[in-house]
């Protein structure tokens, strides 16, 4: 299934339009970007044939009692709109029935694991309906204090509501009510929704063979709107996406504002998927060129500056600061004193990972599972880095996995650090919610990474 989630062959990245980075790519980084000599088309066809064989094997085997119960629960979560299934609710928690929460809505990011399950089982209609209906909701006229979101923004979630038909209280019609963050806790716009939508669209086509969906004019327009929103020039000097806190799976304040790894890994994957799906014509040549340039700069930036292992830690300890020059080694003016005391003893000799965030004078050394695993799945991490991440997880199994599914991050925020970074959020205390709690779907991504 990894072949359907992300293009398997390394990206055919062209050099950036501007001057190359002052520091050339490391040998292993450059070789990984170049990729193997095998024809990408042949490699992709081989993997898709393997995907088809694997799907047939999955669908033909007998389901275990646990799987049958899981499907029963998942089918109970299905939401219908005008007689057709359009997604699954985020959660079915009876304790929240009397509270004004949005657990009964269909979230784009939360539906992706369910969509994978439906596609594996051959039930693709619900995924197709979901893709088309969320496309119809793209950038509706929603405002927060008289301000509207950018064109191309996908909603975080939507809900099926019944409203009176033409003022008649006896006749009703169903409508979709999207939430772009104007009703969300904290009023945060979902940066990852459009990225997940592009990734799921490609997976749908690869598994079902229904490429006509991604070739539709409205779908092509939706892809381009998302890309335009992400690729728009701004004040940022880096190829990474600049976002606010809580704008992705970590949807509460956790100190990830800036350039969080999760968003960058999804951005990289979505760019590669979109490049493959965008229709080739004279109007798309410039867009493809921009995508290629961004992929080249983004992959170098993440592989070079986000990677941390024992060798890199020793380099940071020897960093000079306040360097003013084009060829500065400490480009982000990182002070060695900010390296946390737990890191040197925690990181194994034969392992490493991609840090959670990088900004001027700041490196977030926390290990975030989704960002690192998706970097492996999407080939954002080099082969050597992917092996290092998996070695780290295996070596530090008791910290990252233990007796529960993979933890969202390590280590957790505690005490004064928790008070300052989360704003005293009672939902994000130690070992709760996104503060080192777990998500079962991360185990699935771990298996994809191993494959």
UniProtKB/TrEMBL annotation:
Tagged with keyword DNA damage: no
Described function: Invertase that cleaves sucrose into glucose and fructose.
Protein name: Alkaline/neutral invertase
UniProt biased composition (Pro residues): 8-27
One example of a Gene Ontology biological process annotation: sucrose catabolic process
Start and end residues of each stretch annotated as Disordered: 1-39
The organism of origin for this protein: Aegilops tauschii subsp. strangulata
Keywords: Carbohydrate metabolism, Glycosidase, Hydrolase
Top-level class of the enzyme under EC nomenclature: hydrolase
């Amino acid at each position: 299934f990894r072949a359907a989630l992300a293009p398997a062959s390394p990206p055919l990245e062209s050099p950036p339009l501007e001057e190359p980075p002052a520091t050339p790519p490391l040998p292993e980084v450059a070789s990984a970007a170049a990729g193997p000599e095998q024809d990408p088309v042949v490699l992709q066809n081989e993997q898709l044939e393997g995907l088809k064989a694997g799907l047939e094997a999955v669908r033909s085997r007998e389901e275990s009692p646990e799987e049958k119960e899981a499907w029963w629960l998942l089918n109970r979560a299905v939401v219908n709109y005008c007689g057709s299934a359009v997604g699954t609710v985020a959660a079915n928690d009876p304790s929240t029935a009397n509270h004004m929460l949005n657990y009964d809505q269909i979230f784009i990011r939360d539906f992706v694991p369910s969509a994978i399950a439906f596609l594996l089982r051959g039930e693709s209609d619900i995924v197709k309906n979901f893709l088309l209906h969320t496309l119809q909701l793209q950038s509706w006229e929603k405002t927060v204090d008289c301000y509207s979101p950018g064109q191309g923004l996908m909603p975080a979630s939507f809900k099926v509501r019944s409203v009176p038909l033409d003022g008649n209280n006896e006749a009703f019609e169903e409508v979709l009510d999207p939430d772009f963050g104007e009703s969300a806790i904290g009023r945060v716009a979902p940066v990852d929704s459009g990225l997940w939508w592009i990734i799921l669209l490609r997976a749908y086509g690869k598994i079902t063979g229904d490429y006509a969906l991604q070739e539709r004019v409205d779908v092509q327009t939706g892809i381009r709107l998302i890309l335009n929103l992400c690729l728009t020039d701004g004040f940022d000097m880096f190829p990474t996406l600049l976002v606010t806190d809580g704008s992705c799976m970590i949807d509460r304040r956790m100190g990830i504002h800036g350039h969080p790894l999760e968003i960058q890994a999804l951005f990289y994957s979505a760019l590669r998927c979109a490049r493959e799906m965008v229709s080739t014509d004279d109007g798309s040549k410039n867009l493809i060129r921009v995508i290629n340039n961004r992929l080249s700069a983004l992959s170098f930036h993440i592989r070079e500056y986000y990677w941390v292992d024992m060798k890199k830690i020793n380099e940071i300890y020897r960093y000079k600061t306040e360097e003013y020059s084009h060829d500065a080694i400490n480009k982000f003016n990182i002070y060695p004193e900010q390296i946390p005391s737990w890191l040197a003893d925690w990181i194994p000799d034969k392992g490493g990972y991609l840090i959670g965030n990088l900004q001027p004078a700041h490196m977030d050394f926390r290990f975030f599972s989704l960002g690192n695993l998706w970097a492996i799945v999407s080939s954002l991490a080099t082969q050597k880095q992917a092996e290092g991440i998996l070695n780290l997880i295996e070596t530090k199994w008791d910290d990252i996995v233990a007796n529960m599914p993979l933890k969202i991050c390590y280590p957790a925020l505690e005490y004064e650090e928790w008070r300052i970074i989360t704003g005293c959020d009672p939902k994000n205390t130690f070992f709760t919610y996104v503060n080192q709690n777990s998500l079962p779907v991360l185990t699935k991504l771990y298996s994809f990474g191993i494959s």
